[in-house]
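#struct-queue
[09:14] JT: dropping the first one here, sequence first, then the C-alpha cells:
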Amino acid sequence: MQQDIDLIRSHVIEMGKLVEKALETCLGAIEHNDRQLAYVVILRDRHIDELEETLESLCQRFLIKHLPVASQMRFVYSVIKINTELERVGDYAKAMARRFLSVSDLGAHAFHPKLIEIANLAIPFLRNALQAFAEGDAELAKATREKEKERAIDNLRYEIHRDLIQLHINGELPSEALVPLVTIVSCLERVANQASNICEEVLYMCTGEDLRHDYPHVLRVLFVAEHDACRGQIAVGISNALESHRILFSSAGVASQPLDPKTVQFMTEKGIDISGQTSKYLSQILDLKDYAIIVSLCEEAERALPSLPSRPVRISWKVPDPSKLEGTEAEVQAAYQKTFQFLETHIRELSQAILGNDVEKEKEN
C-alpha cells in the first residue's frame, strides 16, 4: 500500500511541475512576445492530460486493490480532487497561450506590467500548495490558503481591467483584443483560486478538517431565458461580481446558443469577464428542485418551466434581449445598458433579501 501511495504522490508532484512550467513558459511568451513559446505551451498540454488520466487510473486501482480506510481514504480522495485542479490550471495556461496568439495576430501587445505581479503571487501560491501536499504539511497549506484570501490578486486584476478598458476607450486597443487580454488576467486569478482549493484538499488529507465549504448552506439561483446566450449570462456575470459565498448563480436556456460575442464585449467593458462562462439547455438540469429560486427572464422561459412544488420559489423578470436588436451601434449599446441596469438593480435587491443584510458586508466576510 505504501509503495502505491508513493507512486501516486510522485505522479501528482510530476504533474504539478509540468503545470507550473506551463504557466512560467506562457508568461515568458507574453512578456517577450514570443509566439513559439506559446505554441510550446499548447503542444505540451497533452502531457498534462495524459498524467491526469494516469493518476485517475492509479487512484481507481488503489481503491479496488486496498479498500482503504481513514487516512489512506482521505489521501486518495484528495488526490482525485487535486488531479482535477491541476488539470484545470494546465487548461488555463493553454487558454492564455491561445489568447496571446490571437492578440498577437491583431498586432497588439498582450503584455501588461501588472501581469507579472499577479503571476508572482499566483504561481508561488500553487508551488506552496504542491509543497504542502508533497510534505503533508497542513500548516503550510493553511497559511497559503489564508494568504490567497487577502485579495491582493483581485485588486491587481481590477487595476488591469481598468487600464485595458481605458486603452480601448482611447482607441489604443482594438475591440477584438480586449476580451482575450481580460481572459488572460482572469486565468491567472483562477490559478490562485485553484491553489487555494488544493490547500483545502491537503488540509482534509492531513487532518480530516473540511474547509471546502466555509458556509453550511449555499443557496442556488437559476436564471432562465429563451437562449442562454445573452440575458442569463449577463445576470450570472453581475451576480458573480457580488462575490457572495452563500449564493451560487447559474443560467440555462429553453434552447441553447453559443455565448454571444457582443455580450462578452459589453460585459468586458463593464469590467466583468464572462468569457469563461458556457451556455446550457434547461433540459441539462437534472433536478430543478435543487434550486431555491428560479428567475424567468422572458415569457418563453416562463412557459417552458414545468409545474413544481413550493420549492423552488418562482420569480418573473421580463427583460429584453439586446443581442436580438437590429439598429445602429448606439441603439444596440443603449439596449445592452438598459438590460444591464435592470438586472444589476434587481439582482442586488434579491441578494440583499436573501442574505438579510448588506451585500457589501457579505462580500467583506
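[09:21] JT: and here's the second one, same format:
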Amino acid sequence: MAGNTLHVTVRGAGQTVVLLHGLMASGDMFRWLAESLEEDFRLIVPDLPGHGRSGAVAGPYAVEPMAQQVARAMEGLGVTDAQVMGYSHGGAVAQQLALDFPQLVRSLALVATYAHNTATGRERLEGWLAPRLIRLLGTHRFAKLMARPGTGGGPPLDPERVSWLRDMLAGNDTAAMAQAAQQLSRFDSRPWLGRLKVPTLVVSGGRDTAVPAHHARMLAGGISGALTEVIAEAGHTMVWTHPDQLAKLLATWWHRVDRESST
C-alpha cells in the first residue's frame, strides 16, 4: 500500500497474535508457521515499513518508528491486547512496541533475536558491512550472497526454499534496506530491558550462527521472569526448518499466558 499504511494480512480465529518478520523479509516468511497456528489464533501479520507490500511506506526505517507504525496498524484493526512474536529484526521491533505501547502487548515471544546485535567484534564488523554491501550489490545480488542452503546454521534449506527466500529478499528497495540495516545495528535495548513488564518467552536455535546463544542469554537476563526455550538442532532459519516445533512452543506459551491472565 502507498502512503503511511502498512500492508497487513489477517488470518485464523481465536486470541489475537501479532507476528513481526525479519530484516529484508516480509510477513510471507511466516506462511508455513501460520498453517500450524491459524486454527487456534487470529494472526495479525504486517509487512514492516519499507518491506514487502509495505515497500512504499516512507522511512525512517529505524526500530522506533517501525514500532509506531505497527501500533497504528493494530489500533486501526481494533486490536488493543495482543500477544506479540518478533523474529530476528522483528524481535527488536517487538521489544520497542512493548516499551512504547505497553497497553497493546499482553506478552512477548522473542525468537532468534537480540537486545543488541553488535555485541562482539565480529558482529560489529558484520553490522558495519551489511548496509554497505546492500548499497554496493543491490538487493538482488545481496540476496544471492546471503540466502544459501546453510544460511544461519542448522539444517540446510532445500533448493526450492532457497530460491523462494532469495526472491523475497530481492523484492525490496535497495536504499530502504540499506537504511534499515544501518539503523538496526544501532538498536540497543539493554538499558531498558528491565522496564519490560510483560510475560516474555525467548526462543533460540542451538545451531544459530547468525544470532548466537549469547543474545538469548542477554535478553533473558535483562527481562525479569523471562523464560527460555532452545530448539537444539535449529539455526537462524528455524521458522522454515522447524515450523511445527516452533509453532508448538509458541502455541503452548500463548495458551499459558491466556490462562494465567484470566485467573
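[09:30] RK: nice, looked through the second one.
[09:31] RK: The CA atoms of residues 30 and 37 lie 10 Å apart.
[09:31] JT: good to know. Residues 8-117+188-261 form a domain with the Rossmann fold fold (CATH 3.40.50.1820).
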